[in-house]
């Protein structure tokens, strides 16, 4: 299986990867804005 970051790079799809403590910072049901082009959440 290939890591998602490799797929997004190969296909030129914007993505955000490697966000430290994401499961602790983002609460269940919380809305988040993700900008893959600029790489922020």
From TrEMBL:
Domain PEP-utilising enzyme mobile: 2-39
Classification via Pfam families: PEP-utilizers
Tree of life domain: Bacteria
Coiled coil: none
GO terms assigned for molecular function: kinase activity
InterPro entries per record: PEP-util_enz_mobile_dom (IPR008279), PEP_Utilizing_Enz (IPR051549), Phosphohistidine_dom_sf (IPR036637)
SUPFAM superfamilies documented for this protein: Phosphohistidine domain
Alphabetical keyword list: Kinase, Pyruvate, Transferase
PANTHER family associated with the record: PHOSPHOENOLPYRUVATE SYNTHASE-RELATED, PPDK_N DOMAIN-CONTAINING PROTEIN
Protein name: Phosphoenolpyruvate-protein kinase
Lineage: Bacteria, Bacillati, Bacillota, Clostridia, Eubacteriales
């Amino acid at each position: 299986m290939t890591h998602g970051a490799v797929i997004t790079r190969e296909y030129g799809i914007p993505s955000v990867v490697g966000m430290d403590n994401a499961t602790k910072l983002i609460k269940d049901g919380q809305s988040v804005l993700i900008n893959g082009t600029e790489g922020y959440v």
